[in-house]
Specification:
The chain is an all-alpha fold. It folds into two domains: 10-205, Growth Hormone, Chain: A (Up-down Bundle); 233-436, Growth Hormone, Chain: A, CATH 1.20.1250. Helix content is 81%, strand content 1%. Strands 1-2 form a two-stranded antiparallel ribbon. A hairpin with a 2-residue loop joins β1 and β2 (215-216). The chain starts with a helix and ends with a helix. InterPro entries: MFS, MFS_trans_sf. Keywords: Membrane, Transmembrane, Transmembrane helix. It is found in: Membrane. This is Tetracycline resistance protein, class B.
Amino acid sequence: MVSRSSSCNVAQDQHFLLALRATASAISCAGVATLQARQLLITQTASPLGEAAVVQATSGLATAYSLGSVAEFFLSPVFGKMSDRFGRKPILLFFMIGPAIMRTLCALVEQPVARIRLLWLDFASARAVGIQPFLGMCGTMITDVFTVDQQPAARAQLAASQALGGILGNYLSGWWSLRAGPRSTYLCTAAAPLFSLAFAAACLPETNAEIKDGRPSRDGQSSCSVPDGKTRSAYRTLLLDPESLLIGGALGLYEFLNYAPLNSVAILFMKERLNWGPLEAGRFASGHALAGFCASMLARRLMQFFGKRLYVSVTNLLTSVAYATWAVSKTGPSLIACLLPLSFSGTGGATVLVTRYMERAMQLGLSPGEAMGVRSAIGAVARMLAPQLFTRLWLRAAAQKDQPGALPLGAPMLSVALIAIIQELLHQSSFLVRQN
């Protein structure tokens, strides 16, 4: 009976993960497709207003990105506590409604100034109440369902599904925008969250053990609550603990490794160094996403081969090598060569560190929702800083071009290579703190 019950639980967990991966893949596909279509639609909308309007509209997207990250910083802890109180599933479904509404409005409103402002708001809301917190909640649900030993592999499978969605989103967005225009792409990506919401509502269970029959449990406080009943700040608890502080810092730096904040600088770099246009840059972005997908698919086997601690170190080293190669590349083949080490690293180390972070937070008496909120807030700060860092490095390098002692044009990529080394130092230091 015990064996049969255990087999049933394993089957249910795998069914849950399959449904979660399908939902995440669809949301990621629509999100990446929207990212491309947004730039095309805002340029198309602002063009009749003049060149200055195009520049202002495009620069407004960067401001919206930062403002959205600010909102995410303040809202993430709130959503984390709400998921502890009302359940993960209702909050997850809520994160699918906002993008559907905003994308529909962006497509239907035709007045240029109003549409431009809606596109800004759409970009900001995606960070605060859209795809970004949606992915964070997916990670919290994995924490609820799987044991500590199983979580890194489950997170790697989720990351692979997200990467696959990104690959499909890149290709489908470019193809459909060329055929039917970016407005039509927006309407399609508005429908995707609604279909995903219906699928998730039917197939995903509530994973918060404190929620019974869709309502908060009456059993009292969560098993993760502080036994003496004293109120405590999740920020204060985690940031004053050396181990969680170091792990959280390493996790925050992974935001600098994502392609999105580097995208604009990458396009300029490829145009300057290789004379590549948007088509070639888009293909490289798809190749970057494919490398991340391969890394996620290989993560489980690599963790078994190296062990989790060494696996994180190997991925940090390979990431540093990859971006250093990118920074010094002067030909197409040498640029593409950087994708090889990324095919084994990606952001795979994050799957292990997130599990350690959540485990440590629960040891300190926090709930998974509270821990997720703080982690998302740390990520929001990094997402605010990353585009600013890359843009400033590029502008300085471009201004000093051909001057003695000038920054290389690949300075933004070199900064990522350095960040990967810093991550490794934080990773190793977290074990020294634990031993002490």
